[in-house]
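Quick one, tokens below:
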């Protein structure tokens, strides 16, 4: 199968996914909003700010005109920071005529500020169902830097429509990029978004000089509270043991590639949050997601003590050592709770 694929978002992940699609023989149109970057990609075949030292195939063409990028596309892949998804989806909706119905895919990881909505929900709100074929979430442990080097990567294509998930599996899969199908969109999106909170925390522990025991504690108990929130909103608890749960938690909670981990590390070393975010030069989704998840947990009465602690450090300038002490000295509890394993039916 050879498709025309419009990749919306010419940052690290959009560029790395474009390389996979190009490798698989598809016609790739990489859309961004920066004319200088478009010129660089089309003339020098590099995207030096987002993927330094990587040479792109000449057949990956960058666009700044969204209408031209979407013309005749069989698939449209949203790979934008969460805060840009709604605005870009609105523009896409205006350009789709309902005759050529593309498959929609998104590969972003976050929750919308204020509404706390998942990305697939935002896309469905903005693009009328009659204008596209299907919607699939592509998510898993996958640093752009490693995918661009063709390092072995596994990822999940989640959709209620398994024919659509199979289409996306076929679109992306090759000998270094293995794609699994999944039916649990809620669990995959929540696992992907919420692990970024824990990655910020893991970086902060490293920056503060804590060791491996602390890291294991944070990641394990972090996974417990991610699952608790997810299950309360209808996710399958088993999803959190999969690629977009524990898999993505490992990759971001232990790696210097992770922008969330690096931001946490700098915060742990005493740097100011605004300074850290301004100097990163790339999106750090975990900071905004911490706020969204904290508000969601408060609203629904779901216990998320690690998220609450990270929220206090990021948004209330709480002393990080004091916050850790408070976490450690909470009332003693049983390790496993039944609410983590009982699937709820609330939707976000
Ligand atoms: N990097 C990774 O390894 C992975 C990232 N992800 C997820 O993918 C999403 C995107 O991340 P990533 O590519 O890393 O982010 P980057 O910060 O590397 O790049 C973001 C890109 O989005 C562009 N952008 C921002 N707002 C708009 C807009 N309104 N219209 C058009 N373009 C816009 C930026 O353009 P400009 O340069 O002009 O600001 C930039 O090209 C995130 O949700 C992230 O969590 C998922 C898996 C892996
Ligand atoms: O989600 C990612 C890898 O799976 C990338 O994480 P960061 O956004 O923290 O770099």
């Amino acid at each position: 199968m050879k498709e025309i694929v419009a990749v919306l978002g010419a940052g690290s992940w959009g560029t790395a996914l474009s390389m996979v699609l190009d490798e698989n023989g598809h016609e790739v149109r990489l859309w961004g909003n920066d004319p200088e970057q478009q010129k660089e990609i089309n003339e020098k075949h590099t995207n030096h700010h987002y993927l330094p030292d990587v040479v792109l195939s000449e057949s990956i063409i960058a666009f700044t005109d969204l209408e031209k990028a979407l013309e005749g596309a069989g698939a449209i892949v949203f790979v934008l920071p969460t805060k840009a998804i709604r605005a870009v989806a609105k523009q896409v909706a205006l350009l789709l005529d309902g005759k050529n119905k593309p498959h929609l895919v998104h590969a972003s990881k976050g929750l919308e500020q204020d509404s706390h909505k998942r990305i697939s929900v935002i896309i469905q709100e903005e693009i009328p169902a009659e204008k596209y074929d299907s919607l699939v979430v592509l998510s898993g442990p996958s640093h752009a830097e490693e995918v661009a080097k063709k390092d072995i990567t596994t990822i999940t294509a989640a959709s209620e429509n398994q024919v659509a998930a199979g289409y996306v599996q076929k679109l992306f899969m090759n000998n270094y990029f293995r794609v699994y199908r999944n039916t649990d969109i809620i669990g995959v999106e929540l696992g992907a978004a919420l692990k970024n909170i824990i990655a910020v925390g893991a970086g902060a522990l490293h920056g503060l000089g804590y060791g491996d025991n602390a890291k294991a504690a944070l990641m394990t108990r972090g996974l417990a509270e991610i699952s608790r929130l997810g299950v309360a909103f209808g996710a399958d608890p088993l999803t959190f043991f999969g690629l977009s749960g524990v898999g993505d938690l490992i990759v971001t909670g232990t790696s210097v590639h992770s922008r969330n981990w690096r931001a946490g590390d700098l915060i742990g070393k005493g740097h100011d949050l605004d300074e850290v975010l301004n100097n990163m030069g790339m999106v750090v989704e975990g900071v905004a997601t911490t706020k969204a998840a904290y508000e969601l947990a408060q609203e629904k009465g779901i216990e998320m003590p690690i998220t609450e602690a990270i929220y206090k450090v990021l948004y209330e300038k709480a002393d990080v050592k004091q916050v850790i002490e408070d976490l450690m000295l909470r009332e003693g509890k049983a390790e496993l709770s039944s609410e983590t394993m009982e699937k709820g039916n609330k939707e976000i």
